[in-house]
């Protein structure tokens, strides 16, 4: 049985067992699926195809008796000449004096080692008598822990393949295997470890990439189907007439992309199943406008709505703008941690009684004390900042409310289908007309003076500027100290007629609000800030965004910050002060100056950082694949997604016995399936 402990293998004692356990290897199956992270190739190639200074394997005839010399206390050098093709190659072997007795003129040997193209010399690390045919040409290399030599791991993996190969179950139905010409599972496992050649290896990998993606997609889509079907009767019959008049009263015409997204959302609302949708769009693309219309729709259907945002400042801004939009149409209230006492009790009471139509707030919204009369629509802004549990808690406050997640972090399409495979996605990929793209420049730290005079020039023209100061990771304290220093510096650089403000996370809410208010009213010209201005804040008169030490920010964050400007009709500028050391840092700055398209940026970011880091270390829930790579194997992912959709729609997992093994495997995943099966 594949579930047997590795200690069943002859030769694995207690010590080795616990060492292997540390590598996550407990069962035979674990060993079989412990795939190499690379392969050493011992393929014999013609001398002309070898690369200087790289590892090579050659085969030849020993033409002279090896000569042995000693140096130092225990060191030795064995040299001999090999006839390879028509060349005489010098072979050098260190500290293996014993080999002198084994190698003689006339022997054929295969040697592996570092190749010196200029001197036609090889520094041998491995040798074997006889022709290369007698050796495995491609050798697996595994991730190791101290104490477990590579040869040991190879030995036991090989042993488990030999002993258990016939027990490895096939899980893909034949029709899929045949459609993509995938090798069978047992054979593919052997080839993953000991490939006969590169082509066999490629097919084995192809199989596991597809298998991993298919299983993943089936799980996600099952979950999604479950979300949809487990809830019925939440159709919201909104009032079309009122909705139309509301939209017409807006001071602008919706963009095509906004109209499309809105239609998708409204369709979900009308439908008796619960909506679980992600609304993606760049900063300023008009997501909030769409969300507000949807909220209003829900209110005309007699329901309440909730909007949860990550920061108090943002909550307050949304509160202000929604109050204006809903003037005379709906009652809006704000609930944050800093609203206390009698006022808080009153708000909670009115929400419970249904007197408040829309409640806006931070995490405060998910506390137990918050009870709705009839919550029908939930919006979670910047959803990646909240954990899965928090999102769910808010959702569970209503009886099957429709849920809309919003994010201004454009997520590459590649990641969106994996990360959010259980959601529907709407994308606003178009900016409202008349916006001028922000001009972005990257300058070295030594140009700071010129940057400061540029700010002065813009201010002289009536505009305002943000200055974001260096972010010091893990230290709130230092962040603030930095901000204060920069604030003092700029206050002394500029004349008193250019008032500078300071904003950071440690200010009290009233102070923050006051500073923001002063900046919004153009009483402050320059706002020195930490990244707290990152999300949401809207001051259209600000046309300059200067970011100190820009190399310390991720591309997405830089893009978010840049989104604070370019909100009005005047040309805006983003200046990145940065002295990146590495190539990746330079590349990031270059990309920032070349594109303002958030989706393009995120694709580039993904390429530079890889999917693991894309969401930062806090982000959970990104799947890990053994063989597949979401970016590189994107096409396979698409294929698997399509196939999974078909399998789910036709209910083959439950109805078609050929899909039984796949079904069993998927239903084993307690974490995901717990929700579906309970
Ligand atoms: P987001 O939430 O995507 O950052 P908002 O909905 O806050 O974007 O919109 C940004 C600004 O653009 C707001 O001032 C909003 O009133 C305005 N806006 C939204 N949609 C349009 C549109 N279709 N045409 C013009 N301005 C718009
Ligand atoms: Mg917004």
TrEMBL record:
Query: What are the residue boundaries of the Helicase C-terminal domain, all occurrences included?
Result: 447-607
Catalytic activity of the protein: Couples ATP hydrolysis with the unwinding of duplex DNA by translocating in the 3'-5' direction; ATP + H2O = ADP + phosphate + H(+)
| E.C. number(s) listed in UniProt | 5.6.2.4
List UniProt keywords, sorted A-Z. ATP-binding, DNA damage, DNA recombination, DNA repair, DNA-binding, Helicase, Hydrolase, Isomerase, Nucleotide-binding
Going by the record, the broad EC class of this enzyme is isomerase
Annotated GO molecular function terms are: 3'-5' DNA helicase activity; ATP binding; ATP hydrolysis activity; DNA binding
Q: Which residues form the Helicase ATP-binding domain?
A: 268-428
Per the record, the GO terms for biological process are: DNA recombination; DNA repair
Domain of life, per the record?
Bacteria
What InterPro entries does the record point to? ATP-dep_DNA_helicase_RecG, DEAD/DEAH_box_helicase_dom, Helicase_ATP-bd, Helicase_C-like, NA-bd_OB-fold, P-loop_NTPase, RecG/Mfd, RecG_dom3_C
Q: Which family does it belong to?
A: Belongs to the helicase family. RecG subfamily.
Function as written in the Swiss-Prot or TrEMBL entry: Plays a critical role in recombination and DNA repair. Helps process Holliday junction intermediates to mature products by catalyzing branch migration. Has replication fork regression activity, unwinds stalled or blocked replication forks to make a HJ that can be resolved. Has a DNA unwinding activity characteristic of a DNA helicase with 3'-5' polarity.
Listed name of the protein? ATP-dependent DNA helicase RecG
* Organism ancestry: Bacteria, Bacillati, Bacillota, Bacilli, Bacillales
């Amino acid at each position: 049985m594949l579930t047997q402990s590795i200690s069943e293998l002859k030769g694995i004692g207690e010590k080795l067992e616990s060492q292997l356990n540390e590598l996550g290897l407990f069962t035979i199956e674990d060993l079989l699926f412990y795939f190499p992270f690379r392969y050493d190739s011992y393929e014999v190639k013609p001398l002309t195809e070898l690369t200087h200074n790289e590892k090579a394997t050659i085969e030849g005839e020993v033409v002279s008796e090896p000569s042995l010399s000693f140096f130092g206390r225990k060191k030795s050098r064995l040299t001999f000449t090999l006839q390879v093709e028509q060349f005489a190659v010098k072979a050098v072997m260190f500290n293996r004096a014993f080999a002198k007795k084994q190698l003689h003129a006339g022997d054929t040997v295969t040697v592996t080692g570092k190749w010196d193209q200029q001197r036609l010399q090889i520094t041998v690390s491995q040798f074997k008598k006889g022709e290369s045919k007698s050796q495995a040409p491609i050798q697996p290399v595994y991730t190791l822990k101290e104490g477990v030599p590579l040869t040991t791991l190879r030995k036991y993996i090989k042993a488990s393949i030999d002993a258990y190969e016939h027990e490895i179950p096939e899980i893909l139905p034949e029709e899929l295997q045949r459609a993509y010409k995938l090798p069978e599972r047992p054979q593919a496992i052997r080839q993953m470890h000991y490939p006969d050649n590169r082509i066999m290896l490629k097919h084995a990998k192809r199989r596991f990439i597809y298998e991993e993606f298919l299983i993943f997609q089936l799980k996600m889509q099952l979950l999604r189907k479950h979300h949809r079907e487990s809830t019925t009767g939440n159709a919201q019959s909104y009032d079309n007439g009122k909705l139309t008049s509301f939209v017409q009263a807006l001071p602008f015409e919706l963009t095509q992309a906004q109209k499309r997204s809105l239609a998708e959302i409204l369709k979900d609302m009308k439908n008796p199943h619960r909506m679980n949708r992600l609304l993606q769009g760049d900063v300023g693309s008009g997501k909030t406008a769409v969300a507000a219309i949807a909220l209003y729709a829900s209110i005309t259907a007699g329901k309440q709505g909730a909007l949860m945002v990550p920061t108090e400042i943002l909550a307050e801004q949304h509160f202000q703008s929604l109050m204006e939009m809903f003037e005379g149409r709906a009652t809006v209230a704000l609930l944050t941690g800093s609203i206390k006492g009698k006022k808080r009790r009153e708000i909670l009471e009115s929400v419970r009684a249904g007197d408040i139509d829309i409640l806006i707030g931070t995490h405060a919204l998910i506390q137990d004390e918050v009870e709705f009369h009839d919550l029908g629509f939930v919006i979670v802004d910047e959803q990646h900042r909240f954990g899965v549990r928090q999102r769910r808690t808010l959702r569970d406050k209503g009886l099957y409310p429709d849920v809309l997640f919003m994010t201004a972090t454009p997520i590459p399409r590649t990641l969106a289908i994996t990360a959010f495979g259980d959601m529907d996605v709407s994308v606003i990929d178009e900016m409202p007309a008349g916006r001028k793209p922000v001009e972005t420049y990257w300058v070295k730290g030594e140009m700071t003076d010129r940057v400061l005079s540029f700010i002065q020039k813009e201010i002289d023209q009536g505009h305002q500027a943000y200055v974001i100061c260096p972010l010091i990771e893990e230290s709130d304290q230092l962040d603030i100290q930095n901000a204060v220093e920069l604030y003092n510096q700029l206050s002394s650089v500029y004349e008193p007629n250019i008032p500078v403000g300071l904003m950071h996370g440690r200010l009290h809410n009233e102070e923050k609000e006051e500073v923001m208010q002063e900046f919004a009213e153009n009483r402050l010209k320059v706002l020195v800030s930490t990244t707290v201005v990152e999300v949401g804040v809207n001051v259209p008169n600000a046309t300059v965004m200067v970011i100190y030490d820009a190399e310390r920010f991720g591309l997405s964050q830089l893009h978010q910050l840049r989104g604070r400007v370019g909100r009005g009709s005047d040309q805006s500028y983003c200046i990145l002060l940065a002295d990146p050391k590495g190539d990746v840092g330079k590349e990031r700055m270059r990309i920032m100056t070349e594109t303002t398209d958030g989706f393009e940026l995120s694709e580039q970011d993904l390429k530079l950082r890889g999917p693991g880091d894309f969401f930062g270390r806090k982000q959970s829930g990104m799947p890990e694949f053994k063989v597949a790579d979401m970016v590189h194997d994107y096409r396979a992912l698409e294929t698997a997604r399509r196939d999974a959709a078909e399998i789910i729609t036709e209910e083959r997992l439950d109805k078609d016995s050929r899909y039984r093994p796949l079904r069993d495997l998927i239903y084993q995943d307690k974490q995901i399936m717990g929700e579906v099966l309970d």
